[in-house]
Amino acid sequence: MISIDAVADTLTELHDRLRTLDEGTVADYIPQLATVDRRLFGLALVSMDGHLYTAGDADVPCTIQSVSKPFVYALALADLGLAEVSRRVGAEPSGEAFNAISLEPGTGRPANPMVNAGAIVTTSLVAADSPEQRFERILACLSAFAGRPLDVDEQVFASEAATGDRNRALAHLMRGAGSLTGSVDDAVTTYFRQCAIRVTAADLAVMAATLANGGVNPVTGTAVVPEPIAMRVLAVMATCGMYDAAGDWLLRVGLPAKSGVSGALIAASPARFGIAVFSPPLDATGNPVRGVAVLREASERFGLHLMHHRPAAAPTVTSVGPGRSTRPRSRAAAALLAAAADRITVVAVQGALEFTETERLLHALDQAISAAVPSWVVLDLGRVTFIAPGAASMLDGLPMRLRDHGVTVVVVDVGGLLTASSRHWTGFAGLDAAVAWCEDQLLADQGPRVGSA
């Protein structure tokens, strides 16, 4: 069969070429991880439409380890809010290893939720009446991100619990400093179980895609967390997710990411896709060697860096001009409307409206009103697919501002993108009805001597 799928072909090509990369060391400080085959190498990508692409060992189970941290952070934020979580866990890059003993002077706060100390505190913040309930909530949350029920690798959990003295030491220090409350044993045991949750690269790609999709799982359609929480998690991943290599990662790859000592690595390209790699050998900073290589190449090849300049797509404003409805009119009314054609202006808009597009729209409106000074403006959003909250806020005062200049603005808003959230707009379900309404106002201004039909 001839393949025409560039995404699948790219993953296969990267897998086949980079699988011979044999640098790095498999983690052995957790004895059970040292038994994993270093040759395992799986890639998976999930698009915003929920399409899954894989290459290599994408369905081989591994434990999630530190890749669990962003998702538990999301759960803690959902439970307590940013202010309360930030009171206990910082959001600054540590510049140190994932298991470093580094606490903020005076408060005992760990640097961020992506290092072990911060993750232990974050896990303890998940609302629950018991450690068992807390873990069940964590497992349910990660399962919702993955779009299927997940379970625990009990052998890895036992191995972590038997050798986790450094994490216990971190927890005792934070307990003494006041940033960790409650039982140290309960907090650390729950954290160990969280890290031993079993996933595949395909699962992880879905989880990353859910963050990239504003908290909505693109496979199941389930809203796992609100969009502002997904945004904040991605921000912390971008600055802290790759430990003391976070700066170099952001410079070279430019995507929010998180790695784990099992060899798992996720990255999210907001509003595009989630990608995951599983490859056990790690570099000196604890990041999977092949995973880093895959993401560096993919980012450069497809221009995925967050700071990459994206040229404008289709024009936001497609036309500005006079409008006439199809409503039957009397001869006198038709003549008056023809003579006053410049008093009703239709501004047609398309696509998604965010800051840049909305600024263009407002500029076009300003030019149209300055040039013709209409009495009525019809803002036709019939081909607009999305209005960001910030864009809606920019447009919200438009009817009142134009009214101060003697201009009435109405909107064609089929999906209620503006009218559902603001009382300032006069909305219509179609362009013809909106223009006819403006014509009726114009004719009414002329008095009863002008008939409608």
From TrEMBL:
Give the Gene3D superfamilies listed for this entry. Answer: DD-peptidase/beta-lactamase superfamily, STAS domain
Q: Which GO terms describe its biological process?
A: glutamate biosynthetic process; L-glutamine catabolic process
Which reactions fall under this protein's catalytic activity? L-glutamine + H2O = L-glutamate + NH4(+)
Question: What gene name is given for the protein in this entry?
Answer: glsA
For molecular function, the Gene Ontology terms on record are: glutaminase activity
Q: Where is the STAS domain?
A: 334-414
- What is the name of this protein? Glutaminase
Binding positions for substrate per the UniProt entry: 66, 116, 160, 167, 191, 243, 261
- Matching Pfam families, A to Z? Glutaminase, STAS
Per the UniProt record, the source organism is Allocatelliglobosispora scoriae
